[in-house]
Amino acid sequence: MEFLERTYLVTDKATKRYAFPLDRVELRQKPQNKDQCLGEKPEEPETGTFHHCHNHCKAAENRAKEQVRAKWKLSAASAICFVFMIAEVVGGHIAGSLAVITDAAHLLIDLTSFLLSLFSLWLSSKPASKRLTFGWHRLEILGALLSILSIWVVTGVLVYLASERLLHPDYQIQATVMSVVSGCAVVANLLLSVLLHQSGPGHTHQEAQANASVRAAFVHALGDLLQSISVLISALIIYYKPDYKIADPICTFLFSILVLASTITILKDLFILLMEGVPKGLTYDAAKELILAVDGVLSVHSLHIWSLTVNQVILSAHVATAAHRDSQAVQREIIQALSSSFTLHSLTLQMESPGDQDPKCLFCEDPPN
Where would I find the Cation efflux protein transmembrane domain in this sequence (predicted)? Predict the structure, then answer.
């Protein structure tokens, strides 16, 4: 009975709709290679064989290994970030330096980013349910929103305290403690940068995609390194010129602006995700042109591109094919064209005949912009 049910699903011409869950990796254009099964030309199924859409490949196994490495790097980076963040909070309080505490707030952003990346990797392995058919990926977005809210609260308190210091400069700063703490912060960020750095020339394309979260963490670590160096310079200025202690609240203002600017960028990305917008690295017109370029495709409509979360891109479309072409062959060619140019978590195509088209249907029209 199971074989008969499968045969019915494949041959039912009224509902030629199939979903192709692909591997979760970074959204970007990628070249074809022999290890990348999604970009390979699909083999024609032999007569009497069943072509399954969930076939495993060597590329998926390589990504699984790279995800293990990414989890280890992100876990180690989170531990280092947490230890030095606590050290900066305590040291900044002892030294009376708001600039050091603001640097700790920036470390909090990075720690949140690392933990969200780990959370995302864990969610990708959690199975979906009949109620949550897409799984638990959107929890990452909710967690990011909560972390941004907490960062705003902390930054607001620091800005208020810095304003009080400008209005009432009757405070003391332990320049020696501030210098030691900020120097340790520079060392910590150097360790993070070395840990998260990846040698591009020696890595394969699959490794680069699987380590997308690690590369993003590396960028955060570089930003922290620059900020820590700035705090260290401020500490040295106050150490040699105690009368210039105003450098501390000024640094607090500057770094608070930097922290808020980084959260605004994250909020823009979250807004696109929540509004089901087309993610970065992929455009509506580019995807449609790739589909229309396939031989036998007459028209494409109801094209939708959105993301469950970062790097979990989904595409669905209705495709009308010419009568002289086999719709299943056209479908395989479309899958090859899309998967060889972009990386998609899930791809759903509904194949239709020219007679099924309605030129007056408003839902089949392309969006204006």
Answer: 76-275
Read off the tokens for 145: 């929103």
24 DSSP 8-state letter:
-
In the sheet that holds 313-321, the strands lie side by side as 17-21, 346-352, 313-321, 297-307
- Cα separation, 82 vs 76, whole angstroms: 10
- Residue 177 — φ and ψ, nearest 5°? -65, -40
CA dihedral sign of residues 28, 32, 33, 37? positive
User: Using one digit for the tens of pLDDT, what is the confidence trace for 36-84?
Assistant: 444 444 444 444 444 555 544 444 455 566 667 778 888 888 898 899 8
Measuring CA to CA, which residue among 289, 310, 304 is closest to residue 350? 304
pTM of the model: 0.64
Which among 188, 269, 212 is positioned nearest to 74, based on CA atoms?
212
Contacts of 18 (CB under 8 A, 6+ apart): 53, 331, 348, 349
The closest of 329, 303, 331 to 316, measured between CA atoms, is 303
Q: How many angstroms separate the Cα of 257 from the Cα of each of 102, 125, 317?
A: 11, 37, 42
Residues 6+ apart with CB under 8 A from 51: 45
3-state secondary structure of 302: strand
Q: What is the DSSP letter of 251?
A: H
Beta strands in 27-133 (DSSP E): none
Separate counts of helices (H) and strands (E) for the chain: 10, 4
Strand spans (E) along the chain: 17-21, 297-307, 313-321, 346-352
Helix-helix angle 327-341:284-292, to 10 degrees: 140
84 with 195: CB under 8 angstroms? no
Give per-residue pLDDT as tens, 149-165: 877 887 888 788 888 88
Paired tokens of 158? 């620091």
